Structure formats: structure tokens, C-alpha cells
TrEMBL record:
The protein's name in its UniProt record: Asp-tRNA(Asn)/Glu-tRNA(Gln) amidotransferase subunit GatA
Species for this entry: Paenibacillus rhizophilus
GO molecular function, one term: transferase activity
Entry's family note: Belongs to the amidase family.
InterPro entries in the record: Amidase, Amidase_CS, Amidase_dom, AS_sf
Domain Amidase: 27-446
Alphabetic keyword roster: Ligase, Transferase
One Pfam assignment: Amidase
Keyword Ligase among UniProt keywords: yes
Length: 470
């Protein structure tokens, strides 16, 4: 069992724990050994937590022996992006500025995972302050893509995605301000959900842009991602943006087809600038969705070019606002590419910011109208393969997310967005498919992704990769 356990999904592990075939302590020990064998080569973690994890595991094991199982996450080791607070444990946000900061409480999403029985195995690496698409971190090391260690893992939640793809955890938390959950998921062959804005609490997350930030789940399969999502979603009075609106119920339950579902295809923006091989892979994915019974309709969304500019204005100006006090006394501790981003934000005027937010409200309404006849939008997730580590200069790094993917608009809208594997470039580098749903239709989005995923063999290929990685 110890040779193959690392490639199992969390949904496959749960019955083994429930039936006492394996114990939380044994699984945690095996996961820690796996991390020790692969780190620091991949640099997926900033901090591994062996003592804390084993303490959690022993508590959960005692509960299991007594017949008390908290749920499908009971005894499952997970990684937490190091931009999310962990009480009594340093939270660096991938920076030197916060290197010695020890929060006194967990972020809400972290606390909810623990309450559900998940074991926090470590704090995952990230692009400094979550402000980048590569996780090339000058302070804690560059996270390497487990499929090709010379390539980036994507960012900013690169450590979370790499840890999953290397079998060093079975679920993870990331954050997404412009694609930071979805892009590394696509580049590492895993699954990531950016929930509806307000569906998952952001309390305890070091902010990048408070009106664009999202906390969300990452896993190896859509089913596992859904399990994590159910554990962390829900109203939180500690987050001013948290919504009391309930999620739309699962529309049908587990299905084998997509008959009756309509998917919108907007070629403008979403399909522009694609790598030719990725274009072919996405075309085949759409054909598969149609073979499963989904209807694909071409739609038009007005204001796309203006939305891109407005999203950048909002993200960078809100980022500068948060960092301004720290820049005044610790600017030398910021990396060059992050300082470049913050300088862009410093130059944004109040009028520019207010006009961007005003346009945003109109764009959300017009996009909702354009999507009225469909259940979700479909598009490529990553438009280009991961590029070599160190190949992009700091002053060019601000454009990385736009070159690698067309992800930020889902944050601008606040609509849920899912990345699910759909193939491989050059038969070795993963490619992701993106689904964007309507507000609070997160479960419907996961249902569509689950039906598609189970019709393909991508999760099995990831499992084989994990087994062969050592």
C-alpha cells in the first residue's frame, strides 16, 4: 500500500480510513516521507509541519478508533498556500517582509478544513505576495513543474498545484485574484476551482486585491475538489464580502452524460493567442463534451477589451493600497517584479479606479445577460505551455498571466470558474480546460467538469505520473 498510496485520490482514501484499513497517522507518516524524498527539489513547500501534522493525525486516529468520522476529509493530508493564516505557525505570503509573522488564528478556510478532519501537512510555496503567474520565488526558491522540472509550475498557487501533482498531499487551498488557482492547476495537470465571489471566506488571507481575491480548493479530481469546496464554503461574518446567498443545489446529482446542458463559446478574447497544439486539444475537448450530449452555442460578450484594462487597474491599485505602509519601511525586501507591479498601482488615480469599478458593475450585468441562454462558458485555461524557469525578466512579468492564460475576467466578474485537465502538449505537459459558470452555480460547474473528466483518462495519467515520479 505504501508504494501506491500517494497516487490515490482523497475520495478513494476515505473509505480505507473509515474501514480502518489505513490510519490517519500512517497516512500522514507516508506523506511526510514522500515530501522528504522530493523536497527541496520541487520547492513546493515553504514550511513542512511534521510535528503539527502528526499531532492532528493522532487525534483523528483516536476518533476513528472510537467510530467517530468527521466526514470525507477525516485524516487526509492537505497543503495550504502560505498566504493563508495558520495560528501559531509563520505565514510569510512568500515574502521576506512577513518572514517572522506568526498569526494568532487560522484563516476561516483553514479552520473549516481542520474541523472537517483534514490534516495540514505544510505551507505551500507561492509567487511573492501572490503577485505573479510563475511561482519563481527569490526568497524561498522557485517551484518546479513536476512534469518537467525546467518549466514553471504556474502561479501564484504554484506550490499547491505542484504538491498535488507530485503526490505530496491529497488536497490543497489556493487563492485566485487573476487566475492563481486555475493556471497552476492547468500547468500541473490538476483541478482547481475559483468559487463565486462571496461563497468562500477570505478572512485570514493576506490580500492582493480585496475586490478580486478568492480562496478556493485544489485537488487531483473534480470529485475531490467538490469535497473540499463543500467543507470551506458558507457565510462567514468575519469577511465583509461573504454572502448569505445559498449555493444553487446540485442540479441532478452524479451523471454519465451532459444532455440538456448548454455551453457558451465566446471566441473573442478567450480563444485569442492560443498555441496551435493547445487549440487542437481544446477543440477535441469540445467535441467530447458534445458527444456527452452538451450543446455548444457561440455567444458574444460586449466590453471584453475594456474589462481587461479595468481589471488590471483595480488589481494593481488595491494591491498598492495594501502594501503602501510596508513599502515605506521595507521596500528593499520586495523582489524586483513585485515592486514593478506596485509601482504601476501607485500611478493609478482615484478617478481611474472609480471609473474601473463603475464599468465593472455594467460589465457584470451585460455578461450575465449574454450568458442567460447557457449554463456555463467554455474556453482554454492555459493558452500557452509553461515556459522555462528564468526566461522572463521582472519588468515583463506583469504580463505573464495574460500571455499564459485568459483568466482574470472571471475574477472581475466574480463568477465561479473551474480548470480541469484536457490533454498534453508534446505528450508530456498538461493543458487545462476552463468552465465559467453563473454566480453561485459552483455545484453545476463541478458537475459538468466531473462528467467530462470521468469520460477521459487524465486523472489516471496523473496517478501513473505520481507513481513513477521517484
Amino acid at each position: 500500500m505504501n508504494e501506491s498510496v500517494h497516487s490515490l485520490t482523497l475520495s478513494a482514501l476515505f473509505p480505507l480510513i473509515k474501514d480502518k484499513q489505513i490510519s490517519p497517522a500512517w497516512l500522514t507518516e507516508q506523506t511526510l516521507r514522500r515530501i522528504e524524498s522530493l523536497e527541496p527539489g520541487l520547492r513546493a513547500f515553504i514550511r513542512v509541519l511534521p510535528e503539527e501534522a502528526m499531532e492532528q493525525a493522532r487525534t483523528l486516529e483516536a476518533e476513528a478508533v472510537q467510530g467517530y468520522i468527521r466526514g470525507p476529509l477525516h485524516g487526509i493530508p492537505v497543503a495550504v498556500k502560505d498566504v493563508l493564516q495558520t495560528g501559531g505557525i509563520p505565514t510569510t505570503a512568500g515574502s521576506k517582509v512577513l518572514e517572522h509573522w506568526i498569526p494568532d488564528q487560522d484563516a476561516t478556510a483553514v479552520a473549516r478544513l481542520k474541523q472537517a478532519g483534514a490534516i495540514v501537512i505544510g505551507k505551500a510555496n507561492l509567487h511573492e505576495f501572490a503577485m505573479g503567474a510563475t511561482t519563481e520565488n527569490p526568497h524561498y526558491g522557485t517551484t518546479r513543474n513536476p512534469w518537467d522540472r525546467d518549466k514553471i509550475a504556474g502561479g501564484s498557487s504554484g506550490g499547491s498545484a505542484a504538491a498535488l501533482a507530485a503526490g505530496m498531499c491529497f488536497g490543497a487551498l489556493g487563492t485566485d485574484t487573476a487566475g492563481s488557482i486555475r493556471l497552476p492547476s492547468a500547468l500541473c495537470g490538476t483541478v482547481g476551482l475559483k468559487p463565486t465571489y462571496g461563497a468562500v471566506s477570505r478572512f485570514g488571507c493576506v490580500p492582493f486585491s480585496w475586490s478580486l481575491d478568492h480562496v478556493g480548493p485544489m485537488a487531483r479530481t473534480v470529485e475531490d475538489t467538490a469535497i473540499l469546496f463543500e467543507s470551506i464554503s458558507g457565510f462567514d461574518p468575519k469577511d465583509a464580502a461573504s454572502s448569505r446567498r445559498p449555493l444553487a443545489p446540485d442540479p441532478i446529482g452524479k451523471r454519465e452524460d451532459l444532455k440538456g446542458f448548454r455551453l457558451g463559446l465566446c471566441r473573442e478574447y478567450f480563444f485569442e493567442g492560443m498555441h496551435p497544439e493547445i487549440a487542437g486539444i481544446v477543440d477535441r475537448a469540445m467535441e467530447r463534451l458534445q458527444s456527452l450530449g452538451a450543446e455548444i452555442r457561440e455567444i458574444s460578450i460586449p466590453g471584453l477589451s475594456e474589462a481587461q484594462g479595468a481589471a488590471r487597474i483595480i488589481a494593481q491599485s488595491e494591491g498598492y493600497s495594501f502594501h503602501k505602509p510596508m513599502l515605506q519601511h521595507a521596500s528593499g525586501q520586495y523582489s524586483e517584479d513585485v515592486r514593478f507591479r506596485l509601482e504601476f498601482g501607485r500611478q493609478v488615480s482615484a478617478d481611474d479606479y472609480l471609473q474601473a469599478q463603475k464599468f465593472r458593475r455594467k460589465f457584470i450585468a451585460s455578461t450575465a445577460a449574454a450568458m442567460a441562454s447557457v449554463d456555463a462558458l467554455i474556453s482554454p485555461m492555459n493558452h500557452n505551455p509553461p515556459f522555462p524557469i528564468g526566461s522572463v525578466s521582472p519588468e515583463q512579468a506583469i504580463h505573464n498571466m495574460f500571455r499564459l492564460a485568459k483568466a482574470p475576467l472571471a475574477n472581475f466578474l466574480g463568477f465561479p470558474a473551474l480548470s480541469v485537465p484536457c490533454g498534453f502538449v508534446e505528450d508530456r505537459l498538461p493543458v487545462g480546460l476552463q468552465l465559467i459558470g453563473k454566480p453561485f452555480d459552483d455545484r453545476k460547474l463541478l458537475l459538468i467538469g466531473d462528467v467530462y473528466e470521468r469520460s477521459e483518462s487524465w486523472s489516471e495519467r496523473l496517478a501513473r505520473h505520481i507513481s513513477e515520479l521517484l
